[in-house]
Amino acid sequence: MSELQHSVKGVDHVAYPTFDPAATVKFYRDVLGFPVVHSICAAGWGPEKHPDFIHFFFDIGNNDRLAFFYYFGLEPFEGGPQGDSYSRFAEDVPIFFIRSRHLAIHVDSDDDLMEYRRRLDHSAWPVEMQIQHETIESIYTHDPNGYMIEITRALRPVTPQEDLDANLTIDALVDVVSGPEPSMAALLTRKAELITERAAAWQQQQESKEMATR
Predict the structure, then answer these.
(1) How far apart are CA 18 and CA 69, in angstroms?
(2) Which of 100, 106, 141, 101 is nearest to 120 (CA)?
(3) Do 128 and 142 meet the contact criterion of CB atoms below 8 Å apart?
(4) What are phi and psi of 123, to 5 degrees?
(5) pLDDT, tens digit, 9 for 90 and up, residues 31-48
(6) What is the dihedral of CA 131, 136, 138, 143, to 10 degrees?
(7) If you average pLDDT over every residue of the chain, what do you get?
(8) How many CB atoms lie within 10 A of CB 207?
(9) What is one Pfam family matched by this protein (predicted)?
(10) 68-97: per-residue pLDDT in tens?
(11) Is residue 181 classed as helix, strand or coil in its secondary structure?
(12) d(CA 110, CA 100)
């Protein structure tokens, strides 16, 4: 578990390229309701052969923004039949790998989630999946650029015990992938070893906290 402090306050913006700005605006502004909050008209920027471009931003709540670049005169690149405007993959690349790169944004309630489902299902980009997994429920679709978008809501709060478990899991993962033949079985074995190694220290910390509250 990292003890380093940080002063980061969240996401300023995430940015993607688009070859279809009109459909992108329709999807994010007119279907999902994310207002356009900023744009940059960049003429003559950058090194030689850098085309003029528009950089435009949508407000996705909590002072976070989703942004796109549209480059004038730039045509889509050749590639495989799968993927999105940024990355094109060959037919033999597993779809689960391609979909692992996605943007997830969250709402507060089931009513909010279902309202976004309604908007999407009445658009050209209907919901493709609705799944409950672990502590969240999510709906998924692809935007006009082929980027997978997830809208999610919490089913319950994440507990401190789950945070502790997450750190154990990641420490075990780092150890396992640094060695030969990483696997889930090797990760679970290493995780059990770490629990045993750290149990005494945890117990001592817990006892100290209990004494401090008396």
Answers:
(1) 6
(2) 141
(3) yes
(4) -120, -175
(5) 999 999 999 998 877 777
(6) -130
(7) 92
(8) 10
(9) Glyoxalase
(10) 999 999 999 989 999 999 999 999 999 999
(11) coil
(12) 24
Beta-carbon count within 10 A of 110 CB: 11
Contact predicate 56/76, CB 8 Å: no
Q: Which two tokens stand for residue 98?
A: 């391609």
Distances (CA, A) of 11 to 21, 30, 46, 63, 100: 22, 23, 25, 8, 19
What are the pLDDT digits (tens) for 122-135?
Answer: 999 999 999 998 89
Helix (H) or strand (E) holding 132: strand 129-133
Q: Which residues contact 46 (CB under 8 A, 6 or more apart)?
A: none
Sheet with 65-71, strands from edge to edge, namely 13-17, 65-71, 53-59, 36-42
What sign does the CA torsion over 149, 153, 154, 155 have? negative
Burial (CB count <10 Å: 0-12, 13-18, 19+), residue 176: buried
